[in-house]
Design goal:
Blueprint: H1 3-13, H2 16-26, H3 42-54, H4 57-76, H5 87-168
Length: 169
Amino acid sequence: MDPTEQLNTDLARLSTTDRLIVERFINRKGVARDITDRPLTVGERLADRVASFGGSWTFIMLAAAAIGAWLLGNAAMSRPFDPFPYILLNLVLSCLAALQAPIIMMSQNRQSVHDRLDAHHDYEVNTKAEMEIVALHTKLDELREQQWVELIKLQEQQLALLARLMSER
């Protein structure tokens, strides 16, 4: 099997991603690219904002203040609109949690997809960088080998010159 056939056989065994990386390496093309170029939909932006706010200290403090105001307001009224076991408050908080949880999960799922794309992109860049480093090491080894050959030639010339000088004495 000639080297070209062997190379094609080896390339065929690679995954699609690795084959693209090798082709980009051979053709001296870059692998790095911006993976955040896709614009977010309205729902994705809203989910991100809700998740950002729902996971903040501001939300926790506002929720605590609202619950405290609810409890104090009911305690101060002669005829409270939500008496002691606070069933209405429990319903409001349950509805808030029921709506907020899926929205936060949507944001986390979108972020997870983005993280997978990031990891895949990092793999491509790191693999190409590794190939570039191997190529540089190969070039350095070739240069070192050439320098050794030149050094040996110079040494042989010096030894021949020294032998000639010694024979002339």
